[in-house]
Amino acid sequence: MTHFAAAKIISLYEQHAEAWKRLRTTDLFERPWLDRFLNLVPTNARLLDIGCGNGTPIAEYFIQQGFGIMGIDSSGSMIDSCLKTFPYQQWRVADMRELALDETFGGLIAWDSFFHLTRNDQRQMFKVFRKHAGSKAGLMFTSGPSDGEAIGTFEGEPLYHSSLAPAEYRQLLHENGFRVVKMVLEDPECQGRTVWLAQSTI
C-alpha cells in the first residue's frame, strides 16, 4: 500500500518553497552527470527540466552553457522564483504526470523529482518522456536503488520517495524508445544518488 505522504508531495513543496531554497545546496556536485547529459543533447536544442524547483542550480547551469530551458514544477512559488531569476526562459506550473506540451526537446531531465511519484505513476511517466523527446534526445533522472518506498523528512513532515527495480527501469526505457547510456547505483561521487542517463533511439 502506498504511503499517505505520496499524496502530499505537491502541497509540501509549495508550503515550504522558501525552506527548500535555503536548504538546497548550490555547489553543483551534480556537474559531472550534467555534463554527460549535455554531451547527448543536439547543438542548440532546448531542454525540458521536469520538476525544476526554483531553477537553481541545475537549470541555471544549463542556461550558463547556452541552452534554452522550459522548466515545469507543481509549485507555483517555485515557478514564480524562476520567472524572477531567469525571465528570458520559459516556466510553467504543471504536474509532470499530466504533462502535454505539444512539443519536443533535445534533452529531458527529472533530477530529484521523478522519484517522488508512486511506482505506478513512474511507470506511466515513460510515455510522457517519449512524447516530449526529440530525435536522439538525452534523458536523465534519479531513482532509488531498488524496488520499494522510502519515507524521509522535510521541515518535520514525511517526504515520500519510491523506486522501481533497475530491471524494470531498463525495460520501460527500452519499450519507450530509449537506450541506457550510463547508470550508476548509489554513485559515491554524486552523494549516493542512483542516476540513469539514456538517449532516444528514434
Automatic annotation (TrEMBL):
Keywords: Methyltransferase, S-adenosyl-L-methionine, Transferase. Residues 48-131 form the Methyltransferase domain. GO terms for biological process: methylation. Pfam families: Methyltransf_25 (PF13649). GO terms for molecular function: methyltransferase activity. SUPFAM superfamilies: S-adenosyl-L-methionine-dependent methyltransferases. Gene3D superfamilies: Vaccinia Virus protein VP39. It comes from the Bacteria. InterPro entries: Methyltransf_25, SAM-dependent_MTases_sf. This is Class I SAM-dependent methyltransferase. It comes from Serratia inhibens.
